[in-house]
Every structure is written in structure tokens, then in C-alpha cells.
Write a structure and sequence with these properties.
The structure holds three protein chains of three kinds. Chain A is of the alpha/beta class. Chain A has seven helices and 17 strands. Chain A folds into two domains: 171 residues, HUPs (Rossmann fold, 3-Layer(aba) Sandwich), CATH 3.40.50.620; 123 residues, TPP-binding domain (Rossmann fold, 3-Layer(aba) Sandwich), CATH 3.40.50. In chain A, the strands form three sheets. A nine-stranded mixed beta sheet of chain A has the order 9-8-7-10-6-1-4-5-11. In chain A, a hairpin with a 2-residue loop joins strand 7 and strand 8. The relative contact order of chain A is 0.12. By secondary structure, chain B is mainly alpha-helical. In chain B, 54% of the residues lie in helices and 6% in strands. In chain B, the strands form three sheets. Chain B has a five-stranded parallel beta sheet. Chain B has a four-stranded parallel beta sheet with strand order 9-8-10-11, sandwiched between helices. Chain B has a two-stranded antiparallel sheet with strand order 1-2. Chain B is elongated. Chain C contains six helices and 13 strands. In chain C, the strands form two sheets. Chain C has a nine-stranded mixed beta sheet with strand order 9-8-7-10-6-1-4-5-11, with helices on both faces. A two-stranded antiparallel ribbon of chain C has the order 2-3. In chain C, strand 4, helix 2 and strand 5 form a beta-alpha-beta unit. The radius of gyration of chain C is 22 Å and the shape is globular. Classes of the chains: A alpha/beta, B mainly alpha, C alpha/beta. Chains A and C meet through helix 3, strand 7, strand 8, strand 9 and strand 12 of A and helix 3, helix 4, strand 7, strand 8 and strand 9 of C.
């Protein structure tokens, strides 16, 4: 039983998230290389049906408890830690997303084991796990040898291609753990962002602005280009933090993932949290005054210049071209 | 002519009435003035008593000579006449009052002497003409921002009445109009009394009216600052009356509500959020309110509005135009210090200040990026920290970090190199000189920057400092105590060309116009050196109407370049300026000598649609081209 | 009400980062340290709560280069106490730092128990864990992270908290105090305090120094290499004037049928 590779299935809005399928693909490969089983931990209340699609796992460990409906990271970490304490998996893979954030923090603490954060690549080398992580906002990469004991791995989205959905696992085991009935933290409700605004995930063209546009009044330049191209404006986290754009326009880890035909990134440096949300766009054109900005490693075309100036010129050129 | 004060009314001799009226008028006047002085005394100290002879001379030139009023010669002449008439009338009044109150004095009335009456009559006639002109200007021409108050109209009427009664009295005395002797006597006495009572009433009214400026402005000029661009003494700022200095408060009393400041203010022209005249008026209300015993706890920031306080570009056009030498900018900076102290700053400025505190530049970049502009040069620039140099080149933030300006900085480097100038830079030890930080009210950060920079300069060996940035120029020259050592690059290039150390071959001439940067021109009086340089290049400098000390600010100063653009609907100062330049016949280029000007005007060319038909070039680029065989650097 | 704020310094990525000679850590020559951005938001949250309720705010930070600036800035912003914990190496990692803090905090008079403990829920150097939840677990406090809004009802001993989810969704939670909240954001950005006030705080010398108490030893991760990320690709760079670039972009868009 000990030494297996685990993944924790992530649920959001009643469904298993895409990130979980990436974990299953990755976990499958690791388990095969190590010659151990891949087990998926699924928590919930009346959610057993979700286990049916966690195919790549050899077994799903399903924990049902009333307090695990809309589980907080606190309660989830108690459940997973209790399971892991007896079963001693070698590695527990958790998605590095907002939904699983607290679990990532609390689970290793509860188990007294390390986390390896920001994992970009996980391999088996000489029978041991070797991890490559992105540190310091993506500016450095570190290679970590995971060691034999249990370890929790925070896997960045987009690390591997997701496994197919809808494949059934070999087995679904109902397991039980002791959990306090009052977790100490209680969900009141989820608040959706303001409706009536544009749904940026449905746009073909997005003009994204970051800190590099310098001031809120320069937003109109981005709006202008977006209008000229028949798209919408969105932004990276700092712009939302400043209140220049509403929450619904945020692209990235805390916002949405978009895959438009065209993504113009203006004044965005390309922090990993933002790249996560847009790197699969079909055509990415990036403008930044810093030639070393990470955005240029995912963009197809890059321009080193002042973002506002370039957006303005682009709008003029586009209008002229369209006639 | 009968003695007006010995004639009786209702059996009481005139001088009794005169005593009563005089005592009343002087009491009212004195009481009010006393209350005002008490209010001023609640303000903080500010010594303005040095260089007494220079101060007296200032008064001679600007009060007796009314110099600043002559920016419009017709207006200047009219006001000079009215002013001198007033002086003469005051003297005549004093004489007559003394004689009238003390009829036993063996001295005739003033108008007994021809050498009094002739000048007085001539001056009175000229004054009537001047008054008519003033009335036409005020009521027909109606210059914008000339405060149209009932007070102003009343003053015109009162002065006219004084002149008319004097002339009528003298006319009666001279037998004009063919009146009988007793009628002439009656007219003379009546006119005398109307005149004297009017003056006494005027005297009592004066400390309640805008004509307070009569009393206050000569004193304002006497105590004017010898360093008008200078900042108030370090303080936590001011919003309430006792937090300002007496001299800052005194501005309000000296204002004649002429509107010259508003008419020259770029912030006012954009969207009227900031009116320098209203600012001074609010100060006056605050002081007069305190004098009237009303609550002296009002906040000037509340009265003016924080948005207006932040709207100022510190270009100093207001102070340069004000005929009574009011000092608007210290008021703004005092209020900004208060707002900064409370953390009430916009995010743009906050981000800039935090980056500046940490990295020593306004771009929030690592100090190690500062010297990167030198990489594209064909030669090494000396490190002034390591070896002595003749000229320490203090480059400045925008010239070092902004990609649009770096090309100009390299041009300047090549010019220095070609001229064989021994120069070096401080590399990453250079930090922002702090000029704009200080004008934003962050005095603590300014002191920190100044201390660091002085330490860096201390350990370097140099004969002089040259800078490509007028804001840096002003700070180093005037606020770091380095005065004689600091030169702007146009001054240095001027010297190099005129001493033939820099060979330039004019290529074909051409017509250009030159924009005087605020901190080089108005603040430091450097107007001719850049023009000589352009002349030396064979260029024909065509002046804009607003040139030299009247130059119109680009709008970047005072920290505005980091603030939200408030121009919604209005015309930005930079746009107004490029349009002015482009409107000159046969001129296709505006030459600038300041990095912020280059950035602001380049943007303005785009927003005004002039890009492509008009260009903005830095003087260094033109000099480099005239040095021969260089590529034009595109912006 | 007592609020404890934990802050730490992290490497400043505005500067170029280089790898040290040992190949597994950062080169320290030009390395500067800056406050963890999320901790700054935690401090702002604490100050907002102090403005609204009668709360005392204590800030604790491990000693590190430039930490005094942060502590003095916190004092200038109005916190009641600032404490610097010496003896926790800057290279410690989240687990070791949390272990040392968990052992040290109980011994600082007046720090614990606190009604609310706030700290940033992430930092750019958190490789072997997140300090906040590890510390919360060690202190036996309930933990919720990615918090961007906090309202406290001190009478009822509860806080209503807004937590960030994907796509701009916010979860509203009720948390029983005492609790530990991992802060991601705040309803307002961190406030500005003028340099003069920070210098005045420096002059007042109010930073308390406390030596770290060793907790159970925590082995560090086995980092075998550190380096700059290899780019898997790079954009084709377009040069020239802004006009030229705009024309090129229009060409590209036209070729793709995007115009």
C-alpha cells in the first residue's frame, strides 16, 4: 500500500477540473516509471459519481462526509492527511490553482512533510523523483531531488497534456476518515463577478493591458484598438488590483483562462500567473519596454517599445487597413 | 475762496464735523487693519528683512514704476497714471486734512500753490482718460478672468468722483463756467467736502475691499522673495491659517484681482480645475474671515479642492506675471506637503515615490539600468567615481531611462566627445536630483536624495557639473548649493561653439522655433545660450508669441507627468504649445532642450494629428547633425 | 482586539538575479530584498481593521537585509509594536521559518494569543511550503488563504472573509476567531507614508529584537541546481519606428484574416 503516487482530484462548480486531468496524465507516467500504483483521492458528499471519469487512476479513494461538500482546504487537508498518514504515498500531486491553494499549504504542514512548489516538470531519474520548479516569479528554475519520503507536489497548470475525460477507473474504494463536524471555517456563499460585462473567454480578439500602460487614462488607447479589431480589453492582476478594470476582465491564475485567435499583451511582463491564463492563444503579440520580459518567451511576435505608443499606432494602422 | 472748515452748518463749524468724520474713518480703518494684522500674526514666521537696499529698489521699480503692468503697454500706462494720481491726491488730501482739522495753522490749503494745482489738474485730466480706458477694458473688452466684482466697479466710481470733485472745485475757484462769486464759493466748498468725505469713506472702506491691495501690495513687493522659485522652509505642510507663514497669508491681501495669473496658467487653460486667482482669493477669505472673528479653522485644501492642489505644474508663469509679486507656488507646495503627510496621493504618484525611495529613479527600475544608454556608444564614458573629470555630467532620469530620450543623450555624449570635453558620469551612483519630488511635497524624500547625491558628488573630483535636464539643473544649482558649478548643456555647447572647440557646419539653414523649458528659462534666466547655439548652426529662430519668460509649460512639471490626465474635454498644455509652434509661418520644427518636453510634445504631435507635418527635435540632435555625418534618430 | 501580522523579506526581482558559484542558490552580491508583496497587503488589512475597531497591531518579521525599513514603515503607518526575530537565516525556506516562528512567538510577551493573525498567503521564494498555513497549523489555528476582504465582528468573535476563486468569483466565509488568514489582496492598495515619518520612526528606535527559539529541526529540500529558465521559444522581434511596427502588425493580422 505504501509508496504509491496520489493525485487529489480538484472540483469546481460541481465538476472535476481540467487541472485534475493533467495530474492524472502526469501521475500515470510517474507511477508507471516507479512501478507503483496511481490513486486518485476524491472528497465530497454524494459526489461518488465523479469518480467514474478518473480513468487513468488504478483506484479512486472516495471519502464522503457532509462537511466535504464544498470542502474548504482546511477540512480537505484533514481528510487527505488522515488517509496519507496510514497509507504513506510517496508523492501527492495537487494542482497549483486558486481552488486547491489552501490544500497545498495545509496538507504538507499537517503531514509534517515538505511541499515542492511551482512544479514545471516532474521526472523519475534513477528510481527517484526529480522536480524542476519555477521560483522568484519565474526568473529562476531550480531542480529538486524529492527523496524517498512522502512529499506534496504543487503542479503548475499546463505542465503536461491532460488525460482524456470519461474513462472509468479500475476501482472506486469508499474510505472513511474521522473529521470534525465543525471545521471552524464555513462557506456562506459564492459571489459571481458583476454580470452584464463582456465575457472575455468568448472573444476572438483580446487586448490585454498590464502595469506598463502607466495610467488608467491610457486604457482608452487599448479600448480603441480592441474596438478597431472587434474585440475586448482585459488585464493582468496588477491592473485589476488598481481598480482600472473590473474583476471579470482578469486573465490569469485568479482570473480566467482564454484562448482567443489574437491576444495583444501590452505592458505585461509575463509573470507565470498571467501566462497560465493566455499562453495557448493562437497568436500572441507582446509589447514591453523590457527586452527580457518573460512574456516574450510565449509570444509569437514581440516589440520592445512603449505600450501606449504602440497600441495607438496599431489602432491607426488597423483602421487604415480596414478602410 | 472761503475756508471750508470754518464755514458753519447748523451753527457748528466745519472742522468739528471734520474731526468727527476723520476720527470715525480712522477708527474704522485702524480697527480693521488691527484685526487683519492680528490674523496675520497667527501665521508662522518668515524672515524677509535681508538686503534692505535691494528691497527698496524693487519697490521703486515695481511699485513706483509699475514695471509688470507694462506687459500690456496701454494698460500699464493707464494704471501708472492712476497710481501716481492717487499718490498726489493722497498727499494733497493729507495736507488738506491737517489744515482742515487745525484751522489755526498758519498754512494755506494745498491748492493755494500753483506748483501744486497745475500738476494736479494735468494729472487729473490724464487720470480721467485713464479711468475711461480702464472702464472700457473692464466693461467692454472684458479680458477673461478679470474679476468682475461690484467692489471693482465701486472703486472706479469712487476714484472718478474724487477726480471730478477736485476738478470741479478748482474750476469753480478759477471762475470757470461763469458762476457768480457766491455760487462759485458754494461750489468750491461743496466740492471740497464731497471730496474729503469721499476719501474718508474710501479709507474706512478700503480694508474691506479689493483695494486693500493699495496698502498691502507695496509691502508685498518689499518683502518679495529673492528666490522666487524657491521652496518654503521644510515643514509638515499647511492647510489651516496658523500653519502658513505670514507672508504666504499676505499674498491674499495684496491681490488686485487682475487675473494675469489665471490667463497664463496652463492648468487653468486645460480644465479650470485650478485657478491661481481663486487660490489667492481663498487665502484672502481665510485671512479676512479670521479678522472678522469668524472661525479660523477652515482648511484651505477644502476650500481650493485637492484636485486643484495637484493640478499645478509649478511652471511659475503666475508668479512671473503677478504685478504685486504674489507667491502662488509655495501655497501649493505647503498644501501638497499636508496631503502627502496624510498619505492622500494618487496611485500613479504613490508608485513613483515608492520606486524612487527604493531605487533612486522615477522609473522603478534597478539603478544598474541607469548607465545602459551608454552601451550603444562607440566609446567608453569615464566613470567620475573612479577618476577626476573636468565636467561631471549629471544625466537625469528621463535622459537615462526613457528609450525615446536615450538617443538624444547619446547625441549629447558624441558632441562632448567630438569637442574633446573631459567628461564623466556617476553611473549607477547617480540618483534623481529630487526637484519634482520636492514640488510634490515629499520633502523627506527630497532630503534623503539630496544627502545621498551630495555624498556621491563629495567623493568625485570635478570642476563643473553639466546636465541635460533642466529640472536637475535647477535642483543642483539652487537647492544643493552648487550654484556656480552647474551648467546646462546648451550653455556648455554655446561655449564650445563660440570658442571653436566644436566645429559645426551649418547645412542649408532653415526656420525653427525654440521652446524655453520652465526650469531653464523662467526659473533660471537661461534664454540666450540655446538661441545662440541654434544661430551658430545657421538656423533662423522664429519666436512664438509666448517666448522666454512667457513660455507656455508643456504640462509635465510639478509631478504631473506621473498623474492621471485630467484633460477630459480640455486641451492639454502640450497640445496648445505644439499648435502654437506649428502655426508659425514656414516653421516645421520646434526645438526643445528638456527630456520631459521632448516626451510631452512628441505625444502631443500624435494627439493633435500633427505627426508627420511638424516635428519636435532636441537641440543636441541638431548640433550632432551639424557636426556632420550622423543619422537622424527617430522618436 | 489583538492582531498579529507576520511579514518577511524576499529577493527583489526588479534587480537581475544571478546564480551563485555553488550553482544552487542566488548570488548575493547585487541581491536586494523587498517586502513580500502579499505581506504588505496583510499589513494594510490590519491597519484598516485598526482604523475601524479598537485593535492593537503587532508586526513580527525575521531579520533579513532591509527589514528595518519595513518595520519602521509599519510603525510610521501606525502599528503599535514591531518585533524583529534574529537568528533565522534568510535561506531558511518556509518550513524552517515557520518552525522557528512557531517556537518563538509564544515566548514574546503580548504577541500571542492574538484574535487574528494575518500574513501573505504566498511569496515568490516559497519553495518548500507556504509559511502562513504551516505556521497556522503549528499554532493550532484555523486557516483560510487567498483572502482579499475581511470584516470582523469582535463581539461575536467571528470574521466574514472574502476568498478569491477563479474567474473573479469570491467565496464568502465565516471564520470563528481566533484564526489565521492568508492574505492575497485588500480592498485598498497599501497606503502611502511619507519618508519623513519613516525616518522619524527610525529615529525613535522602537524595533524590539528577539532571538529565535529553535523549533524541531526541518531538513531543507535537496536543491541540486539553480539556473535561468531555458526559453522553449522566443517571439520574433519586430524593430523600427512605432509606425513601421504597426504596419508590420497590420500585415500579420491581415495575413491571418483577423482584419
Amino acid at each position: 500500500m505504501a509508496g504509491n503516487v496520489w493525485i487529489v482530484a480538484e472540483q469546481w462548480k460541481g465538476a472535476v477540473s481540467d487541472a485534475t486531468y493533467e495530474l492524472l496524465a502526469l501521475g500515470r507516467g510517474l507511477a508507471d516509471s516507479l512501478g507503483v500504483r496511481l490513486e486518485a483521492v476524491l472528497l465530497g458528499h454524494g459526489a461518488r459519481g465523479l469518480a467514474e471519469s478518473l480513468g487513468p487512476a488504478d483506484a479512486v479513494l472516495y471519502v464522503d462526509h457532509p462537511t466535504l461538500a464544498d470542502a474548504t482546504g482546511l477540512q480537505a487537508s484533514r481528510a487527505v492527511a488522515a488517509l496519507a498518514a496510514t497509507r504513506q504515498p510517496r508523492a501527492i500531486l495537487v494542482p497549483s490553482t486558486n481552488v486547491s491553494w489552501d490544500l497545498l499549504g495545509l496538507l504538507p504542514a499537517r503531514l509534517g512533510v515538505p511541499l515542492i512548489n511551482f512544479c514545471r516538470e516532474v521526472q523519475v531519474v534513477d528510481g527517484a523523483l526529480q522536480v524542476r520548479s519555477l521560483l522568484y516569479g519565474g526568473k529562476m528554475t531550480v531542480t529538486v531531488a524529492a527523496g524517498a519520503g512522502p512529499v506534496v507536489l504543487a503542479i503548475l497548470p499546463g505542465t503536461v497534456t491532460a488525460a482524456a475525460r470519461g474513462v472509468a477507473p479500475a476501482a472506486v474504494d469508499d474510505v472513511s476518515v474521522d473529521l470534525p463536524d465543525d471545521p471552524g471555517v464555513r462557506l456562506i456563499e459564492y459571489e459571481e463577478p458583476e454580470a452584464g460585462d463582456v465575457d472575455i473567454t468568448q472573444q476572438d480578439v483580446l487586448v490585454a493591458v498590464g502595469r506598463g500602460i502607466s495610467s488608467e487614462s491610457n486604457l482608452e488607447v487599448a479600448e480603441d484598438l480592441a474596438t478597431a479589431l472587434g474585440g475586448a480589453v482585459c488585464g493582468s492582476r496588477p491592473v485589476i488590483d488598481q481598480g482600472w478594470l473590473p474583476l471579470g476582465r482578469q486573465v490569469g491564475k485568479s482570473g480566467v483562462t482564454v484562448k482567443p485567435r489574437l491576444y495583444v499583451a501590452a505592458g505585461i511582463s509575463g509573470a507565470p500567473e498571467h501566462l497560465e491564463g493566455m499562453k495557448d492563444a493562437e497568436l500572441i503579440i507582446a509589447v514591453n519596454t523590457d527586452a527580457g520580459a518573460p512574456i516574450f518567451s510565449v509570444a509569437h511576435y514581440g516589440i520592445v517599445d512603449d505600450a501606449t505608443d504602440v497600441l495607438e499606432a496599431m489602432a491607426a494602422a488597423v483602421r487604415k487597413r480596414k478602410g | 475762496m472761503p475756508d471750508p472748515t470754518t464755514s458753519t452748518l447748523l451753527g457748528i463749524p466745519g472742522f468739528v464735523f471734520l474731526w468727527a468724520l476723520t476720527a470715525t474713518a480712522f477708527a474704522l480703518f485702524g480697527w480693521r487693519v488691527y484685526r487683519i494684522l492680528r490674523a496675520l500674526a497667527r501665521g508662522r514666521a518668515e524672515p524677509r528683512w535681508d538686503r534692505l537696499l535691494s528691497r527698496v529698489w524693487n519697490v521703486v521699480v515695481n511699485v513706483a514704476g509699475q514695471r509688470r503692468m507694462f506687459d500690456n503697454p496701454g494698460v500699464g500706462l493707464a494704471h501708472l497714471v492712476i497710481f501716481w494720481a492717487f499718490l498726489f491726491y493722497a498727499a494733497s488730501f493729507a495736507w488738506n486734512l491737517l489744515r482742515g482739522l487745525l484751522p489755526f495753522l498758519p498754512v494755506p490749503y494745498a491748492d493755494a500753490f500753483v506748483w501744486v494745482t497745475v500738476p494736479m489738474v494735468l494729472l487729473s485730466a490724464a487720470t480721467l482718460v485713464a479711468l475711461a480706458g480702464a472702464a472700457i477694458r473692464r466693461y467692454a473688452v472684458r479680458p477673461p478672468r478679470l474679476a468682475q466684482s461690484r467692489d471693482a466697479g465701486l472703486i472706479l466710481a469712487l476714484i472718478s468722483l474724487l477726480v471730478v470733485t477736485y476738478l470741479a472745485g478748482q474750476g469753480a475757484k478759477a471762475g470757470v463756467g461763469g458762476l457768480s462769486s457766491s455760487s462759485a464759493d458754494s461750489v468750491y466748498v461743496a466740492m471740497w467736502w464731497v471730496h474729503m468725505v469721499t476719501v474718508l469713506a474710501f479709507l474706512a472702506y478700503l480694508p474691506y475691499s479689493k483695494h486693500l491691495h493699495l496698502l498691502a501690495s507695496p509691502f508685498n513687493v518689499f518683502t518679495a522673495s529673492f528666490d522666487p522659485g524657491g521652496m518654503p522652509a521644510p515643514s509638515e505642510g499647511a492647510a489651516h491659517l496658523p500653519e502658513f507663514t505670514w507672508r504666504q497669508l499676505f499674498n491674499g491681501l495684496s491681490c488686485a484681482e487682475c487675473g494675469r495669473c489665471d490667463r497664463s496658467c496652463p492648468a487653468f487653460a486645460t480644465n479650470q480645475v485650478l485657478s491661481p486667482q481663486d487660490l489667492i482669493h481663498d487665502v484672502k477669505l481665510m485671512v479676512l474671515g479670521a479678522a472678522s472673528g469668524r472661525d479660523g479653522n477652515g482648511s484651505l485644501i477644502d476650500a481650493v479642492g485637492a484636485q486643484a492642489v495637484w493640478a499645478c505644474t509649478t511652471c511659475m508663469a503666475c508668479m512671473a506675471r503677478c504685478p504685486v509679486f504674489n507667491e502662488h507656488i509655495p501655497l501649493i507646495v505647503q498644501m501638497r506637503r499636508q496631503l502627502i503627510g496624510q498619505g492622500e496621493v494618487g496611485t500613479g504618484v504613490q508608485d513613483m515615490l515608492m520606486g524612487m525611495t527604493r531605487y533612486g529613479n522615477s522609473f522603478g527600475q534597478s539603478p544598474r539600468n541607469r548607465p545602459k544608454w551608454t552601451r550603444d556608444l562607440e566609446f567608453e564614458v569615464k566613470d567620475a567615481r573612479q577618476e577626476p573629470v573636468e565636467y561631471l555630467w549629471y544625466v537625469g532620469d528621463y535622459a537615462s531611462f526613457d528609450p525615446r530620450v536615450q538617443a538624444v543623450t547619446r547625441a549629447a555624449a558624441r558632441i562632448f566627445q567630438r569637442a574633446g570635453l573631459d567628461f564623466g558620469i556617476l553611473y549607477d551612483s547617480e540618483q534623481n536630483a529630487g526637484n519634482d519630488v520636492r514640488r510634490l511635497g515629499e520633502e523627506g524624500l527630497f532630503e534623503m536624495l539630496r544627502d545621498k547625491n551630495l555624498a556621491s558628488l563629495e567623493s568625485a573630483k570635478f570642476e563643473a557639473i553639466v546636465t541635460t535636464d533642466p529640472h536637475t539643473y535647477h535642483a543642483l544649482k539652487r537647492e544643493y548649493g552648487l550654484n556656480g558649478k552647474v551648467r546646462h548643456y546648451t550653455e556648455v555647447i554655446d561655449g564650445l561653439i563660440s570658442s571653436s572647440r566644436l566645429p559645426v557646419s551649418p547645412n542649408g539653414g532653415g526656420r525653427v522655433t525654440y521652446h524655453d523649458p520652465c526650469y531653464l528659462g523662467r526659473y533660471n534666466g537661461v534664454y540666450e545660450a540655446p538661441r545662440r547655439v541654434l544661430g551658430g548652426l545657421g538656423l533662423d529662430v522664429v519666436e512664438m508669441a509666448r517666448n522666454r519668460s512667457f513660455a507656455y509649460c508643456c504640462g509635465a512639471g510639478g509631478g504631473r507627468i506621473w498623474m492621471e490626465d485630467a484633460a477630459a474635454g480640455g486641451e492639454r498644455p502640450a497640445e496648445s504649445r505644439v499648435r502654437e509652434a506649428a502655426g508659425l509661418q514656414g516653421v516645421g520644427t520646434m526645438v526643445v532642450a528638456c527630456p520631459k518636453d521632448l516626451v510631452m510634445f512628441s505625444d502631443a504631435l500624435k494627439t493633435t494629428g500633427l505627426e508627420g507635418t511638424f516635428e519636435v527635435r532636441d537641440i543636441a540632435e541638431l548640433v550632432e547633425e551639424a557636426m556632420g555625418a550622423t543619422q537622424r534618430s527617430g522618436i | 482586539m489583538r492582531i498579529l501580522v507576520l511579514m518577511k523579506m524576499v529577493p527583489d526581482i526588479v534587480e537581475e538575479l544571478e546564480v551563485a558559484g555553488d550553482g544552487t542558490s542566488l548570488d548575493r552580491e547585487y541581491l536586494r530584498f523587498i517586502v513580500n508583496e502579499r505581506d504588505d497587503y496583510a499589513l494594510e488589512q490590519a491597519l484598516l481593521l485598526k482604523d475601524r475597531l479598537q485593535a492593537t497591531v503587532t508586526v513580527v518579521a525575521p531579520a533579513a537585509p532591509e527589514v528595518d525599513d519595513i518595520l519602521n514603515t509599519a510603525l510610521a503607518k501606525g502599528v503599535d509594536r514591531v518585533i524583529r526575530v534574529s537568528g533565522i537565516p534568510a535561506t531558511s525556506g518556509a518550513r524552517a521559518t515557520a518552525s522557528a516562528l512557531a517556537a518563538t512567538l509564544p515566548g514574546i510577551p503580548g504577541a500571542l494569543p492574538a484574535d487574528l493573525v494575518l500574513s501573505g498567503c504566498q511569496a515568490i521564494d516559497d519553495l518548500d511550503g507556504f509559511t502562513a498555513p504551516i505556521l497556522a497549523t503549528a499554532l493550532g489555528l484555523p486557516y483560510l488563504g487567498l483572502v482579499s476582504r475581511i470584516t470582523v465582528d469582535p463581539g461575536a468573535g467571528k470574521a466574514i472573509v472574502g476568498k478569491e476563486y477563479p474567474a473573479g468569483v469570491t467565496g464568502r466565509f465565516e471564520v470563528v476567531l481566533p484564526a489565521f488568514l492568508g492574505v492575497q489582496g485588500c480592498e485598498k492598495p497599501p497606503r502611502y507614508v511619507p519618508v519623513a515619518k519613516v525616518r522619524a520612526a527610525m529615529a525613535s528606535g522602537r524595533i524590539e529584537e528577539v532571538a529565535a527559539v529553535s523549533g524541531p529541526s526541518v531538513p531543507p529540500l535537496d536543491v541540486t541546481a539553480m539556473g535561468k529558465p531555458q526559453e522553449t521559444g522566443h517571439a520574433e522581434m519586430l524593430g523600427g519606428s512605432v509606425r513601421d511596427v504597426a504596419e508590420r502588425v497590420a500585415d500579420i493580422l491581415a495575413a491571418r484574416g483577423l482584419l
